[in-house]
Amino acid sequence: MQKKIDPWGSCDVKDYDKAMKEFGIEKLERFPKRNILFDTGFVFGHKNIRAVLKAVQEKKRFAMMTGLMPSGPMHLGHALVVEQMKFFQELGAECYVASADIEAYLTRGLKRDELAKISEDYFLTYIALGLKADKCRFYYQSSGSQEYMNLSKFLAKKITFNEMKAIYGELSPAKIVSALTQVADILHPQLKENGGACPVIVPVGLDQLPHINLTGDLAYRFREEYGFVKISATFQKLLPGLQGGKMSSSQPNSAIFFSDGGDVVRKKIMGAMTGGRKSVEEQKKKGGSPEICPVYAYHLLFNNSSSGKIYEKCKKGELMCGECKKELANVLVKFVGDIQDRKKKAKNELGKYFR
Amino acid sequence: MQKKIDPWGSCDVKDYDKAMKEFGIEKLERFPKRNILFDTGFVFGHKNIRAVLKAVQEKKRFAMMTGLMPSGPMHLGHALVVEQMKFFQELGAECYVASADIEAYLTRGLKRDELAKISEDYFLTYIALGLKADKCRFYYQSSGSQEYMNLSKFLAKKITFNEMKAIYGELSPAKIVSALTQVADILHPQLKENGGACPVIVPVGLDQLPHINLTGDLAYRFREEYGFVKISATFQKLLPGLQGGKMSSSQPNSAIFFSDGGDVVRKKIMGAMTGGRKSVEEQKKKGGSPEICPVYAYHLLFNNSSSGKIYEKCKKGELMCGECKKELANVLVKFVGDIQDRKKKAKNELGKYFR
Question: CA separation (Å) from B197 to B157, B305, B333?
């Protein structure tokens, strides 16, 4: 039996190469523009990226669509999705960013009045991280256009219960409504009111693959009625948690939140698990293992210019974990602090993103 | 096992008393105002009618909610729902009338562009039949308010798949979305934007009982979050078809449509099945059986003032079927013709009903 991914559960993938084979994801090709996420293999796979590359090369209209789940505070892992959004925005994409507030209400046990508050914090952080207002629209699933709302219902016509079960496993009315709403999110940049059919790139984690597959099927089945073309997706790894496992809002020491003060950020990093040896002596003698070290993964993604030197010195036993952590802490305390400052200014900008 | 009713199938009930027992419907009590539908037992049962009676007596706000299914042309059977709507409107109800266009799209195989055209024809006929614009709002499921649209999704949170299956039998994503949309229709008069919680009466056929039951459960589960109070429903019989079975759009000779010309109406009635005897001689000797005669049922509902005399004469063998049909044809040719005339004028009124 084929393995199923549950987008409403957690998804902790150890072997991405195996997962790609299993779930029909292709290896990522080179982009016309370099980017750290692609260069480091952090974005590891795609479906139908060619349609997007073609649009970029021919300077034709294309869109990027992504969503945020307003549950728990935003952490560094979320920032890397925004990095990818910025990348596609710079390549010329129209950007659509949904707060999945209906899905959060239906599947995460949040109260309706909490959803807007959490979402706004995410949106402000997205702006602080550098997503531009030009050709970019933020929206809530609960305040989408009439056409979008109707699409999310009409889609139900061309999918059977057993097909959804094959994609998602156990189903509930809440999951069915959530999934159809997600599909409408991904397809709505192609609605007439938004400019009609065009390639749409959806950057996701592997846990969102079921939604991508369902959308693929439904886009095809509604190709005549709505004129949809095939969607595209990139698949991004999860940022490792500071304690070695997953970065998770429910384990505060595993994650650096954008709401953390400088002292907290520093303390969390200094307490992180590393790929270092048991003793300073052994480290000096044998060198560390940056390949499995979360601290090094952070250097690679957030302190890339120094990461080559760090890798080398670590391997040679010239860099001790404490020192390495201190350097990362300096980088991230500044990064998080800057974002906090920019978020304050972003409040005045927010209106531009909701048109 | 308890019998299930399929609102997306057909429902041909022979024994209403048995059905009431089986499905927990109560016998209808007397209304403060006489009406032919109640007096004749055509409206045969209710759930929680007391809340509405109380509101009428205390002159408090209450609403009536009903929907039309835009599939097939409107016939005389549909007019009797409008009669009940007028009755509650005269008692002071706010009236909400939905075109179930999303449900029709999802479950009836209609194309999206046909739905508005068919719906408008129904709406015009409702106006022609005498539904007033005062405190009355027509809408399409596909153009309801944001709050209504969201409600139709949020409802999914508090119902399980197995609960829905117990109510509806076999399910599909299309049926789940349709059912939740129907529940939102029935509950939305109680949304804050419409004035908040109040008794809502929903006149339906027995085939709609599953929606009434699901709405009852969900209204209770959302009583704190939305403040909903218990809904009320009346259950109306089906008008018998002219050929003895069900009146159905798919069997044109069984139904009188509001689009039928006078000659067609007359021809259909003259060809109707009756409760008459095999020969004129036998009829004169033994009398007819108005109790099982569709022609008599029509006299009762559309020619009520003469129906007492007709019943008596038929029983005594003093009235032959041909003559009886002629009288009905005269009444209904005029009735349908009048509605056709009024529909033309209703076009100018339509805007008042969409606010």
Answer: 20, 39, 43
What CATH number has the domain bearing residue B83? Answer: 3.40.50.620
DSSP secondary structure of B191-208: SGGGTS---EEEEEEGGG
Q: Does the distance separating the beta carbons of B180 and A177 come in below 8 Å?
A: yes
Question: Where do we find the tokens 């408008």?
Answer: B120
Determine what percent of chain B falls in helix, strand and coil, rounding each to the nearest 5. Answer: 55, 10, 30
Q: Note down the domain range covering B78.
A: 16-238
Is B174 part of the contact surface with chain A (CB cutoff 8 Å)? yes
Instruction: Give pLDDT tens digits along chain A (355 positions).
Output: 445 667 666 555 667 788 788 778 888 766 767 888 988 889 989 999 999 999 999 999 999 999 999 988 999 999 999 999 999 999 999 999 999 999 999 999 888 889 999 999 999 999 999 999 999 999 999 999 999 999 999 999 999 999 999 999 999 999 999 999 999 999 999 999 999 999 999 999 988 999 999 999 999 999 999 999 999 999 999 899 999 888 887 888 999 999 999 999 999 999 999 999 999 999 999 999 999 999 999 999 999 999 999 999 999 999 999 999 999 999 999 999 999 999 999 999 999 999 7
Q: Of the candidates A102, A143, A157, which has its C-beta nearest B153's C-beta?
A: A102
Phi, psi of A174 (to 5 degrees): -60, -40
Best probe of the A interface among B140, B170, B177, by most A CBs < 10 A, is B177
Selected residue of B150, B160, B178 to mutate for chain A interface (largest A Cβ count, 10 A):
B150
Count up the domains in chain A and report the number: 2
Which positions 216-235 of A are in contact with B (Cβ < 8 Å)? 225
Residue in B with minimal Cα distance to A181: B153
Buried b (16+ CB within 10 A) or exposed e, A154-177: bbbbbbebeebeebbeebbbbbbb
> SS3 of B289, please?
coil
**A355 occurs within a structural domain:** no
A164 CB within 8 Å of a chain B CB: yes
This prediction's pTM:
0.92
CATH of the domain at B268: 1.10.240.10
- Tell me the nearest-neighbour CA distance from A304 into chain B, angstroms: 44
Contact at CB, A173 and B159, closer than 8 angstroms: yes
Measured from the Cβ of residue B117, the count of other Cβ atoms closer than 10 Å reads 9
Which of B238, B271, B286 finishes a domain? B238
